[in-house]
Amino acid sequence: MQRIFSGIQPSGVPQLGNYLGAIRNWVNLQADHECVFCLVDMHAITVWQEPAKLREHTLTQAAILLASGIDAQRHILFNQSAVSAHARLAWIFNCVARLGWLNRMTQFKDKAGKDRENHSAGLYVYPNLMAADILAYKATRVPVGEDQKQHLELTNDIAQKFNHDYGVEFFPQVEALIPPEAARVMSLRDGTKKMSKSDPSAQSRIELTDDADTIALKIRRAKTDTGVLPEDPSGLADRPEARNLVSIYAALSGKTVQQVLDLHQGQGFGPFKAALTEVVVNEIAPIALKTSQLLQDETHLVQMLHNGAQRAQAIAEPIVAEAEKLVGFVKPL
Ligand code: TYM
User: Fold this and answer.
1) What are phi and psi of 124, to 5 degrees?
2) How many whole angstroms separate alpha carbon 96 and alpha carbon 328?
3) Is any ligand 1 atom within 6 A of the Cβ of residue 18?
4) Which top-level enzyme class is recorded in the Swiss-Prot or TrEMBL entry (predicted)?
């Protein structure tokens, strides 16, 4: 059975893009994989997080993942900082990855913008920690949204260079599992920007804790053009907002974009938004309700994460200890 690793940053409340790009896939992959899911709190602090908020978001995310169908008994769910193997391997990878490789990372360029000098060193080496997350478990399959593809290519470059430098076939190559529809969900306010849990405007995203009324309001206010839905996907080419809403509908209803257009072509956005609201509410509202129930028992959530961390540690520790030995670090005999 192949091992899956994936992570999500507790830097806010997960949104529909996280769900369609990653979480929903995680839930389905549990049937025939050994899964390790991680709340990457060390990645989150590469940009400033209020300590109380970081803690709150970590527990909320744990609850959301359970409510979405992650099985923390059969699989592993934990927070990154609780397993020190991640930081140790990340340091080795900081010394394997080349500056030129990191300079090409588009996510760093997007996040740092023009004000590069004022961002943390952690943000720059973020992809090395991500490679360490995955390879500390020798995971081979990584379900993510499209925005993480470049980081996974870098992970493979790091694994290859490590193996080459130390003359061993130690780390495997990893495969990105990217969903066919809605691999990149866009903001509801601007169809050229990715939907993000850290966007200052809560109107730009559907959060997985939103109730039915909030979801309906956000979709009603979502930016659109004045046209109608076209006959085929080519009619969405330069209409980013329309394309985004249609692909959200497609992903949630298990249809292709063409099938959605077959059903709704010629319609204006009024009726289409009403239909979209229904499919979003059907999927998200039960998760939001279950999440609020799970959040009543914080002790249980903390205990569940602690238990996950111990099981994660049992897998990662021997792998990272072996990597340290290969590097030449003196270890107890
Ligand atoms: P994060 O928290 O930014 O995103 C978590 C997952 O959600 C996906 N995603 C999206 N998918 C579609 N449309 C969107 N608008 C959208 N926004 C986010 C992301 O692709 C991701 O799969 N760097 C990772 C966290 C991480 C990780 C790892 C992932 C740390 N270590 C190891 C995999 C393996 C991230 O982007 O988190």
Assistant:
1) -70, -40
2) 14
3) yes
4) ligase
- Tell how far CA 263 is from the center of its chain: 31
Enter the pTM of the model. 0.96
Q: Using DSSP, state whether 45 is helix, strand or coil.
A: coil
Ligand 1 pocket, 142 CB below 6 A? yes
pLDDT digits (tens, 9 = 90+) for 56-107: 999 999 999 999 999 999 999 999 999 999 999 999 999 999 999 999 999 9
**134 Cα to the center of ligand 1, angstroms:** 13
| Integer angstrom CA distances of residue 108 from 4, 64, 104, 143, 197 | 25, 27, 9, 21, 17
The CA 74 to ligand 1 mean position distance, Å, reads: 23
Give the single-character DSSP code of 200: S
Domains contained in the chain, CATH given:
3-177+297-327 (3.40.50.620), 202-293 (1.10.240.10)
Spacing, Cα 148 to ligand 1 middle (Å): 6
Contacts of 278 (CB under 8 A, 6+ apart): none
User: Residue written as tokens 């470059």?
Assistant: 157
Distance, in Å, from the CA atom of 30 to the CA atom of 327, rounded to the nearest integer, reads 34
Q: ipTM more than 0.95?
A: yes
Q: Cα–Cα distance between 240 and 235 in angstroms, integer?
A: 11
Cβ 134 under 6 angstroms from ligand 1: yes
Report the nearest-CA residue for atom 34 of ligand 1: 6
Strands lying side by side in the sheet with 76-79: 76-79, 34-39, 3-8, 141-143, 175-177
Is 79 a pocket residue for ligand 1 (Cβ < 6 Å)? no
- Residue 317 backbone zone (phi > 0: left; psi -120 to 50: alpha; other: beta): alpha
185 is in an annotated binding site: yes
Q: How do residues 126-185 score in pLDDT, each as one tens digit? A: 999 999 999 999 999 999 999 999 999 999 999 999 999 999 999 999 999 999 888 899
